[in-house]
Amino acid sequence: MRKYLALDGGATKTFTAVYNENAEILGIGVAGPSNYRNIGEENAISNINDSVRKALHSSGTNGSELDSSTFAIAGVKDSNRSTEIIKSIVERTKVSPGFQLFNDGEAGYYSRFLDQDGLIVAPGTGMISYCKYRGRFERASGWGWLIGDEGGAFYIGKNAISAFAKISDHRMPFDKKLHEEIMKLFGVTHERDIVNQVYKETIDIRFIASIAATVSRLADGGSETCRQILKQAASEAALCAIGLHESLQVTDHMEISGYGGVFRSGAIYWNTLKDVVREHIDNVDFINPIYGYHAVTGSILMKLKAEGFDYGKKDINFIIKNIDQLVNKLDSADRKKYLFM
To answer: Which of 57, 68, 219, 232 has its CA 20 to 30 A from that of 185?
Structure first.
């Protein structure tokens, strides 16, 4: 039976799955980010190797047993230059030479709709959205943390820090829980010491994005400030869907779903996104989103289809359930560090 490897890499983590031709997940591995723009090429190579090593060990597979591998990494097909850099990165890893590069957004889209029409909102560390309609495939957002990416985890974390500053200046109502949590997260005892922690030579994008999990927890605990931060982020994500729907001049019924770590934040984000979209678009249905590490499902199904195997929408939930079972068995330190679970 043939065995394959699928890797999904972004700004927060690198998630790898070893699977067979029956779409059974044999093992998984998770490590740090592999977006070279944020962490550099050598760190990306190291994290890819670490994730692959863990997945191979978990599945009881030697690298020589793999028929081929796929890599869906942020930046593929963004430009010829970025694709060449990522190709060079993968070639310098310890993975067998037979590999194929996927655009991470394309693979993520496939994890919800396969090759059918639909619209995806994908708030991870950053933010991107895709829509396929009548043969056209367009995207919105994905401009990076400095220019945009409104709606993603970095955006939520940044806004939480901004709220902390306003609270400290008495420019907004005092939120004791958020104020204390930000102080604790940055390990400071004086409010303005946070400036030195944030404005480093290299902005710690992953750490700031991780604050989104705290915002979610506080929002569930009753923090109105954090509820508004999540609702604002979700409204920005909804604008991506609305913009794509308009730019592609969609006139038919459209299904909307999503994938990304921000959907772990719970009902506030997803319900707000749906409400804002419905204010502008009538003929839509929503399919519950999946989490960021589930996006590897798209790479798996894309590869198996290319190999001539017959898999469809009904198989998506089977693969996701299989992944979740293995995620629950991951080392607790890895779950906390890389998946914020």
So the answer is: 232
